[in-house]
Design a protein that fits this description.
373 residues, 14 strands, 48% helix, alpha/beta, 5-stranded parallel beta sheet
């Protein structure tokens, strides 16, 4: 499809009146198109199968197969549904035009037609189709480039995991050996370094697992467990890297549900880590576990809040929302993207409720299941 180059646009004309076929063929050929006239609906389907045209001019009142049926068959076929169809008909009632557009036609010209009008509409829809084809090609190119980028990033991150794990092990061993023999400042530095290394390992794991979840390559091991216990374990893990942080966990009792405990624990860890970033150190982070219509966990911080227009994008990969005050940025990286994919892999829901200047409540819920499926 290179209109304007050496290749002519291929237009199929379908009409059972010889005079109309001759006239339309003549004006299209004169304007630089390749006109292909056929005189019946059955011949039109055969012509499209043999050599799909770039556009179809289609009459309605034909026997035994009318234009509506031809259009319906073409639009039902994935191989031909993209071909733009312009109806050219003596039927001029609104109901006829409505039906034509409902079947998938892009335009409707009433007979007797004006030559300039037919040419203008053919030209317009061919240009639109050409632009659409270029857009599809650009999208495919971008998709391939994104896949190449992700592949490179994954390879680098995968290679970094081994030295990072060794670094973590070394820092932990050094901290144990030096406990009680060095100053508190040195121990604080070691603890801070260990926490930073754990954060980097967590980011690497999130990146790799986001891709696995996107590709449905990460198995979800469903089992009945207590959400309250899983939340406590997640909070202990995160608070171990940020000593002194206050967390208030509210629950009416055990909340049993069917889920992958390891995945959901990481979801809670991400939400708690995110909450710590946006809650003053002297204020508590509040977590609520409940079961009303479905098992639900919510994490409320006391940060700057998230403007309404950013409450969806922050769950996308590398989503970044710009805070309103002083142009600061609320960067969320991959943590929330992982949370969204992990919760949705369970068939659950995730979201955020927020008030600018007051804080945000991130929540997720899991489906009501009585046993693993």
């Amino acid at each position: 499809m290179t209109f304007g180059g050496t290749t002519k646009a291929n237009v199929l004309i379908v009409d059972d009146t010889l005079e109309n076929l001759q006239l339309l063929s003549r004006i299209l050929n004169a304007d630089g198109y390749e006109a292909r006239p056929v005189s019946s609906g059955a011949m039109a389907l055969q012509a499209v199968e043999a050599d799909p045209p770039d556009l179809i001019l289609l009459d309605i009142n034909m026997a035994p197969m009318g234009g509506y049926e031809v259009c319906q068959r073409l639009k039902a076929n994935p191989a031909t549904q993209h071909i733009p169809i312009i109806f050219v008909s003596a039927l001029d009632e609104a109901i006829d035009k409505v039906r034509a557009f409902a079947l998938g036609a892009v335009d409707y010209v009433t007979k007797p037609f004006q030559v300039a009008e037919v040419l203008a509409r053919v030209r317009t829809h061919l240009q639109l189709e050409q632009a659409h084809a270029k857009l599809e090609q650009s999208y495919e190119t971008l998709r391939k480039l994104e896949a190449m980028r992700d592949s490179l990033v994954h390879m680098v991150v995968h290679d970094l995991r081994s030295p990072l794990t060794a670094l973590l092990f070394g820092l932990a061993s050094l901290r144990e050996e030096l406990t009680g023999t060095v100053s508190e400042d040195v121990m604080l530095d070691l603890t801070t370094s260990e926490a930073a290394a754990k954060t980097i390992v967590g980011m690497a794991n999130d990146l790799l697992d986001v891709s696995r979840l996107e590709d449905s390559h990460m198995p979800v091991q469903l089992a009945t467990d207590d959400l309250v216990q899983v939340v406590h374990k997640a909070v202990d893990a995160v608070r171990g890297m940020q000593p002194g942080r206050q967390v208030v966990i509210e629950a009416d009792g055990p909340t049993h549900a069917v889920f992958d405990a390891a995945l959901i624990r990481r979801v809670v860890e991400n939400l708690v880590s995110n909450g710590f970033k946006h809650t003053p150190r002297d204020r508590p982070l509040r977590i609520r576990i409940e079961h009303i219509d479905e098992p639900r966990v919510s994490v409320r911080d006391e940060g700057q809040g998230i403007p309404a227009e950013f409450r969806e994008v922050i769950f996308d990969k590398y989503g970044t929302a710009q805070a309103r005050d002083e142009g600061a940025y609320h960067s969320v990286g991959l943590g929330l993207a992982f949370c969204k994919l992990a919760v949705r892999a369970h068939g659950g829901r995730i979201g955020v409720e927020s008030e600018v200047g007051v804080g945000s409540e991130f929540w997720f819920s899991l489906p009501n299941r009585t046993e693993p499926s």
